[in-house]
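Sequence, please.
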């Protein structure tokens, strides 16, 4: 029987494993953390009155593989609602006339016949002083939500994401962890071996023969291997403790990985004794100009949990700080936006979680974004090395939306199908 090792037990690794097991393969998963799920991390307990998501939270649209797995598993999900509003000093901010310029920006993006970085695009088409606010908004949107570095990010790819809109978003009842548990159970029932707290350090290989050495000095052998590690691990420098050595080296694939972007994010989840936004207008998302700029509640579920989000550049000055420091900044941001003193907020705080993904071992970041070189890079990474080493994960997905759980699941499934064809 053919033997496959899968490195990483997130959505992509579990999906690839399940697909291979369904075709009678012998599969072993090796995961560095002490739990499965990777960037899916539902927190149950910790003082929160309901499960909260430190990582993936939303299903961004009617995404076929995610929804079919949830339906197959009988896991319920619900539509989210609530308008997006701008808030400043406790009041809804009046629109600044940006909408008109934003339409112009989207039209120009749609008309672009060759790709360029967002910085170059704004410099070429929106350099006039009258577009200063638009330029700042576009950069902050790309950094904040796509975690993109605008000096390398692909304008065409951002356009594809931005033109999809916010309709049809869902949350999973009980959290994304339900999906991970379902995949794990399915894999185990089909004979999969799962090793956690096992960090891969070195991969010796030749065609159809792989020897893997872990940090805890275990050795695994197989015919083929699928790496589903986050891009940050493939970006790691040789002196970094995350670096994985390939013997012989595979420089073409590793340098291709360098041409796909990987951004940072910090998520702050706070539960208060009361609704501190005092919102009477059913707003779901609050955009502010604060250090932690974006906040959302759990509508349509009524509770007093607020989630803050800082992505891209906003993370740079925060990521090396302690959780307590970041909590202080978060409370200050909320206090400024909703005109409540930090003392009041602190006294009402029931539970909190700072999810600083930059500091998360073996993840070190949020999710991928497309640079202008990503299309070619993904083609290279999706090509197996000598039909023996395969790559998978959210960053390799060619469709939209990228950087999502759906992207990870789709990539895992496709990689397994590709591997099966090489037998
Ligand atoms: C804060 C945040 C919010 C997000 N929100 C959403 C959202 O709302 N909706 C959405 O669809 N997506 C969201 N995402 C993105 C989504 O979570 C990811 O795209 C997806 O979970 C990635 O799955 P993956 O299997 O590709 O990678 P991962 O989940 O990262 O799995 C890779 C695994 O490899 C392991 N690993 C790394 N190195 C080694 C090693 N050397 N040896 C062994 N194992 C190793 C890691 O520990 C990890 O478990 C969010 C991500 C973050 C961080």
């Amino acid at each position: 029987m053919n033997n496959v090792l899968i490195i990483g037990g997130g959505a992509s690794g579990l999906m690839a494993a399940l697909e291979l097991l369904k075709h009678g393969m012998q599969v072993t998963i090796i995961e560095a953390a002490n739990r499965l799920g990777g960037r899916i991390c539902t927190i149950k307990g910790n003082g929160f009155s309901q499960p909260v998501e430190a990582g993936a939270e939303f299903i961004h649209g009617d995404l076929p593989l995610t929804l079919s797995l949830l339906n197959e598993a009988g896991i319920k999900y619900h539509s989210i609602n609530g308008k997006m509003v701008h808030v400043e000093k406790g009041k809804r901010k009046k629109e600044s006339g940006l909408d008109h310029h934003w339409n112009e920006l989207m039209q120009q993006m749609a008309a672009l016949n060759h790709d360029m970085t967002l910085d170059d695009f704004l410099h070429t088409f929106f350099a006039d002083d009258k577009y200063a606010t638009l330029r700042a908004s576009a950069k902050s949107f790309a950094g904040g939500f796509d975690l993109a570095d605008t000096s390398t990010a692909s304008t065409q790819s951002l356009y594809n994401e931005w033109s999809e809109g916010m309709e049809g978003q869902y949350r999973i009842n009980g959290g994304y962890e339900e999906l991970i548990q379902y995949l794990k159970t399915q894999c185990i029932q089909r004979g999969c071996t799962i090793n956690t707290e096992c960090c891969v350090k070195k991969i010796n290989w030749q065609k159809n023969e792989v020897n893997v050495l872990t940090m805890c000095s275990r050795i695994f052998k197989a015919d083929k291997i699928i790496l589903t590690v986050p891009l940050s691990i493939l970006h790691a420098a040789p002196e970094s403790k995350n670096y994985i050595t390939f013997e012989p080296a595979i420089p073409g694939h590793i340098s291709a990985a360098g041409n796909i972007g990987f951004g940072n994010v910090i998520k702050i989840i706070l539960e208060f004794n009361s609704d501190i936004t005092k919102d009477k207008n059913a707003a779901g998302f609050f955009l502010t100009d604060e250090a932690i700029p974006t906040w959302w509640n759990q509508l349509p579920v009524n509770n007093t949990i607020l989630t803050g989000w800082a992505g891209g550049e906003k993370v740079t000055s925060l990521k090396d700080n302690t959780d307590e420091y970041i909590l202080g900044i978060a409370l200050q941001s909320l206090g400024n936006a909703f005109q409540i003193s930090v003392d009041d907020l602190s006294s009402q705080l029931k539970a909190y979680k700072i999810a600083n993904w930059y500091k998360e071992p073996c993840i070190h970041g949020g999710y991928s974004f497309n640079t202008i070189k990503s299309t070619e890079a993904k083609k290279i990474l999706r090509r197996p090395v000598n039909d023996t080493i395969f790559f998978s994960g959210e960053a390799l997905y060619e469709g939209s939306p990228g950087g999502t759980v759906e992207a990870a699941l789709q990539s895992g499934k496709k990689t397994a199908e590709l591997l099966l064809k090489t037998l």
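The domain at 3-47+50-59+65-75+174-260+376-421 is CATH 3.50.50.60 (FAD/NAD(P)-binding domain).
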